[in-house]
């Protein structure tokens, strides 16, 4: 064989350079100073409420009750008392450290279970042939129409009859089932986008369904899994309704329930709310920062041409 | 060491009346390079995918090495396939791409390493082994796809238009590389293309398909010299053969004033179902440009393609049935100008005569 190397050393085709230049002009237009200024202003306005909440969480009880957070700039007085109070079960009237753990115990399986099941189901719907496939897929898609609230009471009855009420199982099961239709639908669309020749190449290389799924598809699915994982994590972490219905008892109640108790049922310690909210925010922010690096575009680049 | 046999293999897509591949009978010999060619939608890719096991065989059988593989999954057929769009695993390096099939077979690591290195050396991919496909050019990706097939040492190579995504120059280069690689490795190869030049230059034998039906299988030379029917005659060769259906009389075919003499047997065969007509074809290079003469066909030149070595002259002639387009190849120094009238005379030894009704060669 004679070499083809001299012809093939530059992988940038003409079309790509054209695209680049189009992107470059767009970028040049968007990065004008006025556009940047507008973006900064928007970002500041958007952040102000959160910022106010953050400052409030460091203010004394007295100040919180009497003045707005912006007065701190003229009369700075900060304290960690709120955080101490929030984290101390005796003082807050609500056991935040325990419920923090409860939240984690509730959320992690509620994310992992639907992710695992949905990605498997999505693969089956996208790349396997079995009788009733289309009907089942439409049925699953249609399940999204059912409002969550409608199912709460029947589910509770079911859980009671199964004797698992008041355990974490209730939350895991309900969150998983609520998440599955959308998860299957989203992942199915994503898996369907993978070029069929890639799957066929793997089949010819000798891969069965299991190998195709784990060795070829799963690595390509990470952006979708990360995206759905974050969505589901935030949704479950911030959920109050399902937890309140199924996990209202103090032993297993999550942060959201306890935080609402701070203001709601007792009504006395609402000044602790901002500190509690920031304790609760830590985890979702960490999760987001950890997973966002999986949002890689162009994961399929180089696989197929055209 | 393998032969491939299609035994009346048919594929009928669900919800479709007409078979995509209709009772395909084809014998492919050991170490043979067979090219399946035809216009798009003719069933050539479907035939290949039936052999690969990616497409069901609805009727008939497919045998590899005398063994019935009709209902076996792809992985049990010991075949390797190169896809039109390469279908490389984007998350794996070149090395992992080539090693994937062997890894699945649980081949020992040292052996995988040896096989991959060997194939990489053969395809000049050594320096790219640790790269991901997206960091490769089109030609390199194509070679990785080839490497992935070679590493497996399969019984049969299947190639589905592997060159159609390369630019023209690289395509010509890779074309000869694939042909010599196949000769060196000695593996039976089935190659699908819509490009008749690829088919002519690469194949030991070429199978021409149309509408799911095999038209003719033969060596490229035989296909070119004695096409079995009108479709094959028009499909093989570029520019295409001049094929006209004209009135028939006792002695030959009438191109207006020009009478092209046919033998008595040819006339007799053309009469049957021909409705008083006969289809005559001659290749662009099998016609002479002559001076003004009564027994030559006058043609008004519409376009002249100067190819450097020679020229293609496109023009039209007014025949009794209406205006007909012709193309002839001339030497460069005889190149006519546009609008000029030239006189052409087909060489009677290189005529292709077909029955006007059935389209079958006489």
TrEMBL record, chain A:
<keyword id="KW-0812">Transmembrane</keyword>
<comment type="similarity">
    <text>Belongs to the binding-protein-dependent transport system permease family.</text>
</comment>
<protein>
    <submittedName>
        <fullName>Alpha-glucoside transport system permease protein</fullName>
    </submittedName>
</protein>
<dbReference type="GO" id="GO:0055085">
    <property type="term" value="P:transmembrane transport"/>
</dbReference>
<keyword id="KW-1133">Transmembrane helix</keyword>
<feature type="transmembrane region" description="Helical">
    <location>
        <begin position="104"/>
        <end position="128"/>
    </location>
</feature>
<dbReference type="Pfam" id="PF00528">
    <property type="entry name" value="BPD_transp_1"/>
</dbReference>
<feature type="transmembrane region" description="Helical">
    <location>
        <begin position="135"/>
        <end position="160"/>
    </location>
</feature>
<dbReference type="GO" id="GO:0005886">
    <property type="term" value="C:plasma membrane"/>
</dbReference>
<dbReference type="InterPro" id="IPR000515">
    <property type="entry name" value="MetI-like"/>
</dbReference>
<feature type="transmembrane region" description="Helical">
    <location>
        <begin position="269"/>
        <end position="291"/>
    </location>
</feature>
<feature type="domain" description="ABC transmembrane type-1">
    <location>
        <begin position="100"/>
        <end position="291"/>
    </location>
</feature>
<keyword id="KW-0472">Membrane</keyword>
<feature type="transmembrane region" description="Helical">
    <location>
        <begin position="212"/>
        <end position="237"/>
    </location>
</feature>
<keyword id="KW-1003">Cell membrane</keyword>
<feature type="transmembrane region" description="Helical">
    <location>
        <begin position="34"/>
        <end position="55"/>
    </location>
</feature>
<dbReference type="InterPro" id="IPR035906">
    <property type="entry name" value="MetI-like_sf"/>
</dbReference>
<feature type="transmembrane region" description="Helical">
    <location>
        <begin position="172"/>
        <end position="191"/>
    </location>
</feature>
<keyword id="KW-0813">Transport</keyword>
UniProtKB/TrEMBL annotation, chain B:
<dbReference type="InterPro" id="IPR003593">
    <property type="entry name" value="AAA+_ATPase"/>
</dbReference>
<dbReference type="GO" id="GO:0016887">
    <property type="term" value="F:ATP hydrolysis activity"/>
</dbReference>
<feature type="domain" description="ABC transporter">
    <location>
        <begin position="4"/>
        <end position="236"/>
    </location>
</feature>
<dbReference type="GO" id="GO:0005524">
    <property type="term" value="F:ATP binding"/>
</dbReference>
<dbReference type="GO" id="GO:0140359">
    <property type="term" value="F:ABC-type transporter activity"/>
</dbReference>
<keyword id="KW-0547">Nucleotide-binding</keyword>
<dbReference type="InterPro" id="IPR012340">
    <property type="entry name" value="NA-bd_OB-fold"/>
</dbReference>
<dbReference type="InterPro" id="IPR017871">
    <property type="entry name" value="ABC_transporter-like_CS"/>
</dbReference>
<dbReference type="InterPro" id="IPR040582">
    <property type="entry name" value="OB_MalK-like"/>
</dbReference>
<dbReference type="InterPro" id="IPR047641">
    <property type="entry name" value="ABC_transpr_MalK/UgpC-like"/>
</dbReference>
<keyword id="KW-0813">Transport</keyword>
<dbReference type="InterPro" id="IPR003439">
    <property type="entry name" value="ABC_transporter-like_ATP-bd"/>
</dbReference>
<dbReference type="InterPro" id="IPR027417">
    <property type="entry name" value="P-loop_NTPase"/>
</dbReference>
<dbReference type="InterPro" id="IPR008995">
    <property type="entry name" value="Mo/tungstate-bd_C_term_dom"/>
</dbReference>
<protein>
    <submittedName>
        <fullName>Multiple sugar transport system ATP-binding protein</fullName>
    </submittedName>
</protein>
<dbReference type="GO" id="GO:0008643">
    <property type="term" value="P:carbohydrate transport"/>
</dbReference>
<dbReference type="GO" id="GO:0055052">
    <property type="term" value="C:ATP-binding cassette (ABC) transporter complex, substrate-binding subunit-containing"/>
</dbReference>
<dbReference type="Pfam" id="PF00005">
    <property type="entry name" value="ABC_tran"/>
</dbReference>
<keyword id="KW-0067">ATP-binding</keyword>
<dbReference type="InterPro" id="IPR015855">
    <property type="entry name" value="ABC_transpr_MalK-like"/>
</dbReference>
<dbReference type="Pfam" id="PF17912">
    <property type="entry name" value="OB_MalK"/>
</dbReference>
<keyword id="KW-0762">Sugar transport</keyword>
